[in-house]
């Protein structure tokens, strides 16, 4: 019976630790980034496969890169698909580069902003002296 209680206690601790970990903001931000990155990857793949590579193929004499391959025995070496994947990678890398450049510019602008001086906290004596000064001024 004690083993069951110890096991439940350990499981509850682990569940609590996991709940604390998952509720931290950066884990959720990372998950959103992965999901958006996956969707963005599909868009770039479509851009490469459906627009860029057909245009390159047309410019090079109606070459379909997806079908470019050679055989060694029964094995097919699909170098056309590899070329498409390289173009896909280069576009994704360029997009990430641009996003990072924009992010760095914003970060630099934030760093260049002058900090506001801290608010001056007046002591009770200073407030009293200012009131006396103002009263004397009005006489």
TrEMBL record:
Keywords carried by this UniProt record: Cell membrane, Ion channel, Ion transport, Membrane, Transmembrane, Transmembrane helix, Transport
Position of the signal peptide: none
Membrane spanning stretches: 27-45, 82-103
Cell membrane in keyword set: yes
Recorded topology in the membrane: Multi-pass membrane protein
Quaternary structure and interacting proteins, as annotated: Homopentamer.
Family: Belongs to the MscL family.
Protein task: Channel that opens in response to stretch forces in the membrane lipid bilayer. May participate in the regulation of osmotic pressure changes within the cell.
PANTHER family, alphabetized: LARGE-CONDUCTANCE MECHANOSENSITIVE CHANNEL, MECHANOSENSITIVE CHANNEL MSCL
Protein's recorded name: Large-conductance mechanosensitive channel
Naturally occurring in which organism (per UniProt): Treponema bryantii
């Amino acid at each position: 019976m004690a083993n069951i209680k110890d096991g439940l206690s350990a499981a509850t601790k682990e569940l609590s630790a996991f709940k604390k970990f998952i509720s931290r903001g950066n884990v959720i931000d990372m998950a959103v980034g992965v999901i958006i990155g996956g969707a963005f990857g599909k868009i770039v793949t479509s851009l490469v496969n459906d627009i860029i590579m057909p245009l390159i193929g047309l410019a090079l004499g109606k070459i379909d890169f997806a079908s470019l391959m050679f055989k060694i025995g029964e094995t097919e070496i699909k170098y056309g698909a590899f070329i498409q994947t390289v173009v896909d990678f280069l576009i994704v890398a360029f997009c990430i580069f641009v996003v990072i450049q924009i992010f760095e510019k914003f970060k630099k602008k934030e760093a260049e902003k002058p900090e506001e001086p801290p608010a001056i906290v007046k002591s009770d004596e200073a407030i009293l002296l200012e009131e006396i000064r103002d009263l004397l001024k009005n006489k």
